[in-house]
Amino acid sequence: MKGPIVVTVALVTLLLASCSNGGDGLAEQYREGTGANYISGDGALTILATDSRTAPVLFSGELDTGGSFSSEDHLGEVVVVNFWYAGCPPCRLEAPDLEELHQQFLAQDVTFVGVNILDQAPTAKAFAEDFGVTYGSIMDVDTGAIRLAFSGQVAPNAVPTTLVMDRQGRVAARISGILSDPELLASIIEDTLSEEVSP
């Protein structure tokens, strides 16, 4: 039994170490750049030009709210995917901002979904109630399937990480670390929404 315990402790240590405060001034850097294949100086923001994006990332899983989520059901929409867990302080700080953006884009073709990498559903649901989060989260702790689905793309290599996926299901942008400027994410979502979809 020693092996699994050591692995679990190592995983938790890695997750806590990667819990990041992100980069300040990213919105300014993004607006000053071309928006094409852009990576911020600290690596916290990555923007992929449409012709640089790889294949669509298809993923699905059970939600903390019950039921399930499948990215295939949301092709044709912009999907915002936030990787988090309840004990991560930056995740707590950014939760209200993510919910506000979710509400802001609710009437448009934008879907928000969380991916909880460490907790079980009751903990995730309690977090959502405490912070007023109304969109569901896929529970990824048991299989790691969602993280694996993104591993060959712009991987979520910090917690929290927020990915923006285009209407074709491809990763268009990644914010590693805390969402320090909600306007940055709003700008990225709007830009991604406005892209022409290839036939």
Task: Write structural notes for this entry.
With 199 residues, the chain is an alpha+beta fold. It has a single domain (2-193), classed as Glutaredoxin (3-Layer(aba) Sandwich). Helices cover 35% and strands 20% of the residues. The protein contains 6 helices and 9 strands, in the order H-H-E-E-E-E-E-H-E-H-E-H-E-E-H. It has helices at residues 2-18, 26-32, 89-104, 121-131, 145-150, 182-193; strands spanning 38-39, 45-47, 60-62, 68-70, 78-84, 110-116, 137-139, 161-165, 171-176. Strand 8 and strand 9 (171-176) form a beta hairpin. Helix 2 runs parallel beside helix 6. It is globular and about 40 Å long. The N and C termini lie far apart (53 Å).
CATH superfamily, please? Glutaredoxin
Please tell me how large the radius of gyration is: 16 Å
Find the structural class using helix and strand composition: alpha+beta
> Which fold name is given in CATH as the topology?
Glutaredoxin
CATH class: Alpha Beta
CATH architecture identity: 3-Layer(aba) Sandwich
Instruction: Detail the poorly predicted runs.
Output: 1-18, 20-24
Number of helices: 6
- Proportion of residues in extended strands: 15-25%
Query: What is the CA-CA span between the terminal residues?
Result: 53 Å
Mean pLDDT, nearest integer?
A: 83
SSE string: HHEEEEEHEHEHEEH
